[in-house]
Amino acid sequence: MKKILLPTDFSSNSWNAIEYALRLFENETCKFYLLNTYTPAIYQVEYVLGNPAEFDIPDPMNELSLMELETIKDRIKKDYNNPKHSFETMAVFNTLIPEIEDVVKKKAIDYIVMGTKGATGAKEVLFGSNTVHVFKKVKCPILAIPDSFKFEPPHEILFPTDYDINYTNDHLQPLLDITSLYISRVNILNVSFGYDLSEEQEKNKKKLETFFSKTSYLFHSVANESVQEAITEFQMKARINLLVMINNKHSFFENLFFKSTINQIGFHLNIPFLLIPAKT
Description:
Number of strands: 10
Number of domains: 2
Number of helices: 9
Strand order of the largest sheet: 3-2-1-4-5-10-9-6-7-8
Helix content: 25-40%
CATH class of the largest domain: Alpha Beta
CATH superfamily of the largest domain: HUPs
């Protein structure tokens, strides 16, 4: 049974991500955890002491959060009633990132599926700050869904790589699970800068062939382009439904999102993005 965490701030963007998850895993037995975290604007005494529920003190923010979560559950039941899917709601007095880290460990979460922006997402920003912090901090495969993207079966997957990773089952299983559901083709894209692959890179490339032996895959090599340009161009040529990357240290992803000013990046994703941590 897949365990999938769905953080929500009750925005249309987070509902769009929930819909994507329900469609993506519609033929899988899954338990979904609907999570909303809240912190009061002004910390009252009972909040400073701890969770108000511990002291039998009414907690209106918790009640409101639970009510909103139940509304989402009702909407799911109405629009996507699926006997393979079960749900648990979690309204928690905490900040989002520590709570997600805690739930991932306690519930052995397989995927986090979330929107790329929150309720106040600016269009020129690629990912909202919450999404970026989840990418950085949480050791779990994360599917980020753009707010304008409506579900498409991921038949064509783009997987950019520098072949610098000694691939393991942990790295590739989240991707292989999706390819097995949709008989997807994986387009493995390497961007080179005039140098031949090293012996280590060739070895890692061979490992990929072994992992993808039961999957349709193609190797692509592009020279003298930035990774951003290569991804954008490939998306224009082929109908890519899902971008997948492994967040290894010093990776393109890390350089792009954590060492640059987010809203200055001329690289805007309009397809779902699966980021797999290098270390779990």
